[in-house]
Amino acid sequence: MSRTTQINPDRLIALLDRCPISQKELAADIGIDVGTLSRWKRLDKPPGRLRGDKLAKLCDALGTTPTELCSDGPLPEAPKGDDATHKGQVTMVLDTACRNSLALVARRYGVTRQQIVEVAPLLFAVMAEQSIAERREQLQKFSDALGNIENSAPPHLRNSLRSPWDSDDQEILEAEKRSIDARDLFASHVGTWDANHSKDNPFARFLRKKLIETGLPNGKTVTWGGDDSPRYMLGAEELVEFFGRDTGAWLPVLNGDVALAEMPREIRKATPERRASWVKEKSALNAKEIDAAAEELRNMDFKSIDWREAVKLVNGADEQANYDF
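-> structure tokens emitted (325 positions)
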């Protein structure tokens, strides 16, 4: 028997009042009819019990958590003024590829995107500390190996032989130690080696190794230089389910060329072939818009240019803030 959870109808009603979309649209997103949603919130009957999958979809659609929806008592008042943004909304510039991955991973594990975002600081801290610990261990092993090389020479030759490493090498190792102590994840202060910083810095390498160790279907590549958005490929199994075997629709999603959040509701509910067709059409249209924006930039008067508007032209105006998929 499926595990069910008791919801609080009073809190459901309050959250529905705050929801920016209609209850009909909300019900469609969850995969139920409006009558079912009405039964869930009806106060003349005992509080409803929802299966885990329905509860997750309802919370995701409302931008809430099971704890907030199922707890006793009335729902706390929504904050006012500058704090009025609902806790389920995140106002930030979020890379399209990242938003797509967030939706696909949430689908894989049957959780809400908010739950993933809420645990992200913890997971990041764990990965960061493991990466730093690995670097510290590698540095110690290398230093020990150098010492062993020097000590392995016959005693009567030690003063005559040149050191296997010079003062410049010593400075690099000391810089690495300072970098580790400062939690410099990308080793951005170590030497001048970072021509390919987005893929060869220690944190990107560590994340790439951990991703491969999971055995998840992925591109086996993680690139992240710290100054740009991380690049990785997750969600291949979900893409097969959503788009079939049409790989032409996978790459625009994984690369962030097309935002899943922009897919119309009627397309989401169509066949995998129709969804794949929409992605490819959208990708081609976006490419044309980028070319047009680039041409407009080339024709601009650079003495009077508003650089913020230029960035909007290149990046698009829809990168702000939400991850509705």
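Residues 95-234 form one domain.
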